[in-house]
Amino acid sequence: MNFYDTLGVEPTSTSDQIRSAYRGLAKESHPDLGGDSERFRELTQAYETLSDSHRRKLYDAWLQAPAHSAGAGFADQTLQDDMQVAAVLEHLDVMTQQATHSMKVGLFWAGGAAAISLFSYEASKGGGHYVVLWGPVIFGAWRAIKSFEARTKLIKARRDIEASLRRGLA
Predict the structure, then answer these.
(1) For the stretch 147-168, what's the b/e string if a residue is b when 16 or more beta carbons lie within 10 angstroms of its beta carbon?
(2) In sequence order, which ranges of 65-133 are alpha helices (DSSP H)?
(3) Contact status, residue 81 vs residue 164, Cβ threshold 8 Å
(4) Residues 61 and 93 placed together within one structural domain of the fold
(5) Same-domain status, 64 and 144
(6) Are the CB atoms for 99 and 151 separated by under 8 Å?
(7) Distance CA 156, CA 153 (A)
(8) Nearest of 27, 96, 82 to residue 49 by alpha carbon
(9) C-alpha triplet 112, 118, 119: angle, nearest 5°
(10) 3-class DSSP state for residue 61?
(11) Which residue, of 9, 18, 38, 105, has the fewest CB within 10 Å?
């Protein structure tokens, strides 16, 4: 019996229909109300899987997989592994955004210091001294380059993970 059958809903059911079916069945089988605890556990597992859109997609894909017809079970470990991969990908996205921001800040430092140095030089054409802000120019350029390198590595890592996931699912 699959989770849709457990809740008495169709695979095309909406999340509201799944919630409504679960609540009705859970009231009937809740152990505190004299129901069967094993049945309640099955209902809860089915609801937790089908109410989460990500888990539901995984479950639906599992139902369609050839391994399903060979009797393989849908394990919670599959969900945990997939959720860990999703967390890693999300973390890579955040780190990529941070590296992009750091790169922009470095370019701002380098560009701003170079502009101030240029204005100072233009103002001193009458023979006075002018200021060259080498520190901020070099620091900004270094920061932009290092951030670009980090961003490139992060993007490559994400692409590698996605490619291995596609190979694993194929």
Answers:
(1) bbebbeebeeebeeeeeeeeee
(2) 66-69, 76-123
(3) no
(4) no
(5) no
(6) yes
(7) 5
(8) 82
(9) 90
(10) helix
(11) 38
The CATH number linked to 7 is 1.10.287.110
As given in the structure block, the two tokens for residue 102 are 């750091």
Range of the domain at 27: 3-69
The residue to which tokens 């019996």 are assigned:
1
Structure letter (DSSP) for residue 127:
S
The token duo for 166 is 């596609």
Residues 85 and 161 in one domain: yes
Query: From the first residue on, what is the mean pLDDT of each consecutive set of 10 residues in the chain (170 residues)?
Result: 88 92 91 88 89 82 62 56 76 92 94 88 76 87 94 92 73
Distance, CA of 93 to CA of 152 (rounded, Å): 12
b/e per residue 17-50 (b: at least 16 CB within 10 A): ebbebbeebbeebbeeeebeeebbebbbebbebb
